Known about the structure:
Blueprint (H helix, E strand, L loop, with lengths): L3 E3 L22 E3 L24 E6 L2 E7 L9 H14 L4 E4 L4 H13 L2 E7 L5 H8 L3 E5 L3 H13 L3 E2 L9 H15 L5 E5 L4 H15 L8 E7 L4 H8 L25 H10 L3 E5 L4 H10 L6 H13 L7 E5 L12
Parallel strand pairs: 4-12, 5-6, 5-8, 6-7, 9-10, 9-12, 10-11
Antiparallel strand pairs: 1-2, 3-4
Helix pairs in contact: 1-2, 1-5, 2-3, 5-6, 6-8, 7-8, 9-10
The protein binds zinc ion.
Zinc ion binds next to loops.
Amino acid sequence: MMKIVCLNCGRPYPETGVPYQCPTCGGLYDVEPLTSDLQPSTLNQLVSLGEGNTPLISAKAFRREVYFKCEYANPTGSFKDRGTATLSSFLLSRGVTEAIEDSSGNAGASFAAYAARAGIKARVYVPESASGPKRQQIEMYGAEVIPVPGPRSNAAEAVRKAAQAGMVYASHAYLPFNLPGYATCAYEIVEQLGGAPGAVVLPAGQGGLLLGMARGFRALMRAGKIDKMPVILGVQASACAPLAALFSMGITGLNFVTEGATLAEGVRVRTPLRAKAIVEITRESGGRFTSVDEAFILSGRDALARLGFYVEPTSALVWRAMEETLPELPNPVVAVLTGSGYKFAAKKD
Ligand SMILES: [Zn+2]
């Protein structure tokens, strides 16, 4: 097994059970940086629906040739499947037969699908107001959906209560087991390009994909497979951009972060749990964060569709971000298209 430690007190992850926080101090668990690789031989069984091996397609963006990593082509329509494959494999290795989650988005849909595949009974707490294709998708995979009245934080509270009562909380945010899954996206890009990209542009909410991929590139560098880290450009929605604030203004920046409504619902995360590690590794890459105003999200989605890429609004953040930052990014530039356009119900006006 990869080495997992509490970031707060340094104690290792227990040999049994699936606590989502350190039982001793309440700290957050993370993968020991130098052992970030997943060794499949240490898992009893790899739960898979054929995630990964997604296309890398070049196309013209703002007069530059750019590569698009089509993560929407994963089994449930988003990059989350890479992380859910490793997370659900871990759950099986611990003998888990029933687990809960609190996402009404891509993570919830992915969790429901892989739980179905693994024979794990899934229960997903969602805000009562959540509707649309993602909730339908969660239900279709056979997960039990528990609607919780009130804001999103009420659903989070309900899931924490259930976890305290002994349920396994398969949190995609707290548990670190998805991060080695995301590293495989970096490995594939290097394989497909025949070398390291100059820069990687990707949306960041909790920032798990950014962190997992950046660690993947770093692991390849340490192994002598590539010469340098690609410049990482993390993209947020201006309505809710804590990583951008933390990066440019330090800890005081967080005082000015809003949690406004945004079409980019996948990155609407006010307090990313791994913000410190994410900001550090982005800085180490020579990259930074940027944020995109609401007015540019749908036009970005439309521009990508005109190139043949049908993505949800969250993924479209990369288009406007590239318009503003391409001149500073070294070739080859890879933009990660995280989720499918089928996931987004267009509002009629
Ligand atoms: Zn601890």
